[in-house]
Specification:
The chain has 401 residues and is an alpha+beta fold. It has eleven helices and nine strands.
């Protein structure tokens, strides 16, 4: 017997009390400052990022005019103390990343690189003169930085670094190349890691230094609203004052990556939330076969799986942030969250794209853009396999790298 269309459409639960994007009410556990930070960045994303980001993605351009606005909110070097930085806690930094990536991974990537990969090492390993000279200007966005670690022949094995530096009198001479460097084409300052006779050292190389050039990587189909490039160093001479005195060996750059990976664990939650939010609206208004898609069992199961993944990721990152604020966070814990949360977000974006049907490949909807971006996010700053093996080493005490 046929069922009338008006009978087939179930009533929505008007008494729903849970936030679909925050099922475990993580928001209620945040301090007033943390909520204020989240709300401020959310407004920036809603008012300034979302209206323009799709066009920037399509045109392969970075919305550089947003940098002063992000700086004005204290988002650059937000967790650093002094030198014009906001001195926020780790959870605040995570919420900043989450909201920015709700807009686009490219925007969060810019802030991650500026804050965690450039300002953090200067703050942690730099001389007082270096801190005073660079950090205040980087906090305002007047100076943009990039992090030169990855090399063309193998990003997952930084110990196999080919870029090298040798002393020449009171100076250093650098030679080598770096690849897949976020912000490289627009950076005023590059933190270049190079092999020396004493071990790996970090060098602050300014744009305009003879022999130092950058080239933008074009024709990429991911992170198109971010600028990515290569660094080339051909007999680049820098003074001793350009060397980070507190970093020697791989521990320096790896410590920077731990900071950035922490932010990524939060950021990808925002991308997944953006996909789920749009999908919930679409499936409740799209009517097929006499009922909304949201009334279909198979779609409800898939929506529930998305919510489960997002909720788990939220709790992982929140606890990781509390550990970080207590100075108890360990790299293996970051690897677990980066592995889990990136995989979750990529699967949510892919499934959301599929559930939108033909509309899923349209720029009108966000899942395809987030899915393309997350293909990079799951790879950079440690591939999924690297993080799995990092956790495996922690569990067994045996390195399988």
């Amino acid at each position: 017997m046929a069922i009338a269309a008006d009978q087939a459409v179930p009533q929505r639960n008007s008494g729903r009390t849970l936030d679909p994007l925050d099922l475990y009410d993580v928001r209620s556990t945040l301090s007033d400052e943390e909520q204020l930070v989240q709300d401020s960045v959310a407004r920036l994303v809603d008012e300034r990022v979302l209206p323009v980001i799709q066009q920037h993605f399509e045109e392969h351009t970075f919305p550089r005019d947003l940098v002063p606005e992000m700086a004005a909110l204290g988002l650059l070097g937000s967790s650093l103390e002094g030198y014009g930085c906001a001195g926020m806690n780790a959870v605040c930094y995570g919420l900043i990343c989450q909201e920015l990536e709700r807009g686009d991974s490219g925007i969060r990537s810019f802030v991650s690189v500026q804050s965690s990969l450039c300002m953090y090492p200067i703050h942690a390993f730099g001389s007082e003169e270096q801190k005073q000279h660079w950090l205040p200007r980087m906090a305002t966005g007047a100076v943009i930085g990039c992090f030169g670690l990855t090399e063309p022949h193998g990003g997952s094995d930084p110990a196999n670094m080919k870029t090298h530096a040798a002393r020449r009198g009171g100076d250093w001479v650098l030679n080598g190349a770096k690849m897949w460097i976020t912000n490289a084409p627009i950076a005023d300052l590059a933190l270049v890691w190079a092999r020396t006779a004493d071990g790996i050292r970090g060098f602050l190389v300014e744009r305009g230094t003879p022999g130092f050039t950058t080239r933008e990587i074009e024709r990429k189909f991911s992170l198109r609203a971010s600028v990515t490039g290569a660094l080339f160093l051909d007999d680049v001479v820098v003074p001793e004052s350009a060397v980070l005195p507190g970093a020697l060996g791989l521990k320096g750059p790896l410590a920077c990556l731990t900071q950035a990976r922490y932010g990524i664990t939060w950021g990808v939650i925002g991308a997944a939330q953006a996909c789920l939010a749009q999908l919930l609206d679409y499936t409740q208004t799209r009517v097929l076969f006499g009922r909304p898609l949201a009334a279909t069992q198979s779609l409800q199961i898939r929506l529930a799986q998305m919510a489960r993944g997002i909720t788990t990721a939220q709790l992982l990152s929140l606890q990781l942030g509390r550990l970080k604020d207590a100075d108890r966070m360990q790299p293996a814990q970051v690897s677990l969250a980066k592995w889990h949360n990136c995989r979750m977000a990529l699967e949510v974006a892919r499934d959301a794209r599929d559930m939108l049907g033909g509309a899923g490949i349209s720029a009108e909807y966000v899942p395809i853009r987030h899915a393309l971006n997350l293909e990079s996010v799951i790879t950079y700053e440690g591939t999924e396999t690297v993080h799995q093996l990092t956790l495996g080493r922690e569990l067994t005490g045996i390195s399988a790298f």
